[in-house]
Each structure stands twice: as C-alpha cells, then as structure tokens.
Backbone:
C-alpha cells in the first residue's frame, strides 16, 4: 500500500439550499518519498483537498489513509505549509522553529538541537536570534519550512507556499526547496497554479479538472535529479510544459466560463 491512499473522496459545501460539489470521487496514491504536485484552475478544490488531508475540514464520502490509518483530525504526521507565513511575531527564529517540538513535549536541549539542524538546512543559522519582522518574505517562508520539517511529519502538505513572494524570490525558493528535498527525501503533496513550479519540483504532476475537482491527467516528470536550475531551458522541460498546459488549458477555460 502507498503511504497515502485517497479513495473516492467527496466534498460538498452546503449553505442553505445551495450545494457546491468541491471534490467528486477523487482518488490518488502517493508513494513514500514521492514529490507530487497538483495543478488546476482556481476554485477547483485544491485547497479544500489539502485541508481535508490536514484534518481541518470534514469530508462527505470516501477514505483517506495515511500509513494505513484513516485521517481523523489534525496530527503531527502531516506538516502543513501555506501561503501565509504564520510565524509567531513575538518569538525569535529559533523559538519559532522549536515551537512544534515544544508542543510535542520534547526536552529543551533536544528541541534546540533539532531546531538548529533544520535552520541550517534552510540556510538561516545566522538569523537564529532575529525576529520575524526583521526577515524578508522568502526568509520567513524558509523559517516556516524549517518549523514544519522539525516535526518530522510523514508527509508535507504545501498549498501555494511561494504564492505571496515576488517572481525572483519565488524562483530562488523553488531551487532551495529542490536542494532541501534532495537531502530529506520527504513525501510531499504540493499544490500550485504555476506549471513551471510543478514541473521543476515534482516527480509527478497531477492535473485537476475544473470544479468539481477530479483527476484529469497524471504526468510523470523524468527530469534527472538533482535538478539544476537551468533544466528549465532544456527541450525536455519544454516538452513537459507543453504537455501539462495542453491538459490544463481546457479546464482553465471551463472554470472561467463559470464566472461569466
Ligand atoms: P482552489 O484552492 O483550487 O482554488 P478551493 O478548494 O479553495 O479551490 O475551493 C473549491 C470550491 O469550493 C470553490 O468553488 C469555493 O468557492 C468552494 N469553497 C471553498 N471553501 C468553502 C467554504 N468554506 N464554504 C463554501 N464553499 C467553499
Ligand atoms: Mg487554493
């Protein structure tokens, strides 16, 4: 069995007489150590899916098994990283990274050692005692990543984590995440609307349909690892880009029709 097994997942939002089917009989398996990116038009249910996996949002049907156990509510086996940086402004960088371990009741020396290890991994050891307000957007998101990695979750759930960053910082963060992943080999489910980000980072790109979200297509990305930044200029990369865009294009158009 794969590390994550989602079968026939259903989600309907109800408000009074109105019902919105956000996810429709959605199935997906993710193997241990696999990096899967999900792309899809805006409003197709990507965030809803991640919130359900995180245990923050109930589902209406189907099953989600992580390491063989059904998902029921939030837990430290799933590390969540969203667009908002969500750092505690009153805690130093090291205090923020150590926070999750404090919640888990780890002894102080152990949590500081672990926090230092992960800060080093994201290249921010020198900012150990700084406060979030003193950091750039990219640095804040690196601290947030170190914090979630320090939990040592079985799977990382990332929802457009670089969406609030400017284009240059975003590209650098993608390179950084690739380098970090090369060392940690975490299992990752990464939601983005950015095709380039998806192809550059993932082993497999899953294309969602317009709402209700279903799998339209799955594309294995065979680009060699570790991935160099200039792989984005290669013919092989461009072929993947065209392949994903061909699949996504119709769905983006359908999603736009809905708002007319
Ligand atoms: P995405 O992340 O792919 O852009 P979402 O998962 O945020 O899409 O939303 C999927 C659909 O579910 C949208 O039509 C959205 O309006 C609807 N939706 C999301 N959250 C709620 C909610 N709390 N109540 C009602 N409808 C919601
Ligand atoms: Mg979203």
Residues:
């Amino acid at each position: 069995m794969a590390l994550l097994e989602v079968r026939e997942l259903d989600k309907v939002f109800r408000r009074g007489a109105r019902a919105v089917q956000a996810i429709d009989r959605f199935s997906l398996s993710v193997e241990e150590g696999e990096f899967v990116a999900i792309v899809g038009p805006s409003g197709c249910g990507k965030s809803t899916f991640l919130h359900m996996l995180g245990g923050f949002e109930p589902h209406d049907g189907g099953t989600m098994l992580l390491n063989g156990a059904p998902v029921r509510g939030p837990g430290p086996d799933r590390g969540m990283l969203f667009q908002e940086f969500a750092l505690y402004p009153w805690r130093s960088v090291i205090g923020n990274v150590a926070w999750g371990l404090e919640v888990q009741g780890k002894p102080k020396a152990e949590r500081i050692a672990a926090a230092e290890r992960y800060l080093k991994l994201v290249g921010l050891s020198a900012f150990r005692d700084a406060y979030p307000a003193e950091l750039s957007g990219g640095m804040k998101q690196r601290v947030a990543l170190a914090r979630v990695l320090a939990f040592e979750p079985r799977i990382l759930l990332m929802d457009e984590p670089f969406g609030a960053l400017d284009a240059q910082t975003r590209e650098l963060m993608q390179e950084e995440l690739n380098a970090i992943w090369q060392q940690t080999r975490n299992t990752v489910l990464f939601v983005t609307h950015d095709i380039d980000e998806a192809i550059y980072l993932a082993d497999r790109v899953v294309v969602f349909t317009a709402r209700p979200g279903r799998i339209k297509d799955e594309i294995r990305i065979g680009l060699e690892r570790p991935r160099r930044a200039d792989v984005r200029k290669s013919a092989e990369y461009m072929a993947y880009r065209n392949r994903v865009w061909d699949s996504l294009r119709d769905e983006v158009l359908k999603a736009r029709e809905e708002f007319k």
About this structure: The radius of gyration is 19 Å. The longest helix spans residues 235-258.
